[in-house]
Design a protein that fits this description.
Mean pLDDT: 82
Radius of gyration: 23 Å
Low-confidence stretches: 155-171
Structural class: alpha/beta
């Protein structure tokens, strides 16, 4: 990944506040966000939910009064700012967040000037705006993916919370390791290798207060080596990261899971409980190491085990004859 600089411009009139985390996470994959601005009428009660997110994510609110009823007053302010930023020659690309077709011409104009334009909006976004962007991402899909990731994280939370308590940085070392595994998985899906420099940049984009010294290390490479989760390989002047895949350990984990499932009889064992048991036995276990986004899917792939939901929608694992 190159260190591209992006200007993030958000149309608050046409995008919900609930997407802000996935917007910033997705943009961190492409480079550094140097401008973060959001446009709207902040005297309007409709913008109240956005207000709580602005300070948290260091987003600058741009006031635009709705002088005409029924007219989206943020459009002109956002377009003028975009052109001012373009002519400043301070960025390599723009991220335009809106579900409004009014930004179609702006996206096209920015691309004509050699800018990378990442569009983000809801499923209702017109095709004209989608097509005018270099890349367009559906926010509802991103939010769904995040919720699935959080569900998987919830399966391991009980085992990790105690170990992370008191660690420096955003959420503790295990959260950082999980984030890195996700970044490596993203690159693998795109057929790319993950360099140490890229991962370091993406961590800072995702967690601006991240500092490896908070965990007692002077370098990111030593922190990753000591985690026991990653392989580091030097290729010329670049360090390439990959997640360790130990077939012997995988076999031991599968054997352990099957034994735990069998021990709980016909009803089986809850996936959350099973997750806690696995992490208690295998401290460095990460389901993404084995190509799965959720523990339940990893368990479902095993011969003689099935995953089902109870009437209370609790995921369980039990023996079967498959």
């Amino acid at each position: 990944m190159t260190d591209k600089r992006f200007a993030l411009l958000i149309d608050s009139d046409n995008v919900s506040y609930k997407y802000i985390s996935v917007i910033l996470d997705e943009l961190s994959k492409y480079g550094t966000t140097t401008y973060k601005r959001i446009y709207g009428d902040w005297t309007d009660t409709k913008a109240s939910r956005w207000k709580g997110k602005l300070l948290e994510h260091s987003i600058v609110p741009i006031q635009q009064f709705a002088n005409t009823t029924g007219k989206n007053a943020t459009d002109s302010a956002m377009i003028i700012d975009a052109m001012d930023i373009l002519y400043s020659n301070q960025v390599d690309g723009f991220c335009l967040v809106s579900s409004d077709s009014d930004f179609t011409r702006l996206a096209s104009r920015l691309r004509e000037s050699g800018m990378t334009v990442i569009g983000m909006g809801e499923g209702k976004t017109p095709l004209s705006f989608r097509s005018s962007c270099t890349i367009f991402t559906n926010l509802e899909v991103l939010l769904e993916e995040e919720e699935k990731t959080e569900e998987n994280a919830g399966e391991t939370e009980g085992a990790e919370a105690t170990e992370d308590k008191g660690n420096g940085g955003p959420g503790g070392s295990r959260q950082i390791i999980s984030a890195i595994i996700g970044m490596i998985s993203d690159n693998e899906d795109k057929g790319k290798e993950s360099s140490l420099g890229e991962i370091g940049n993406r961590l800072l984009n995702k967690y601006p207060d991240f500092d490896v010294r908070n965990f007692g290390y002077s370098s990111l490479s030593r922190f990753l080596e000591d985690s026991g989760v990653f392989d580091l390989k030097r290729v010329e002047n670049t360090i390439i990261l990959s997640v360790k895949s130990d077939d012997k350990t995988k076999g031991e984990i599968i054997k352990y899971i099957k034994a735990e499932v069998a021990k709980h009889g016909k009803k089986g064992i809850g996936i959350n409980q099973l997750s806690n048991e696995i992490h208690s036995r295998f401290k460095n276990f990460r389901v993404k190491q084995y190509g799965y986004s959720q523990l339940s899917k990893f368990v479902q792939s095993m011969d003689g085990v099935e995953v089902y939901e109870t009437d209370q929608r609790q995921k369980m694992a039990r023996k079967c004859n498959k």
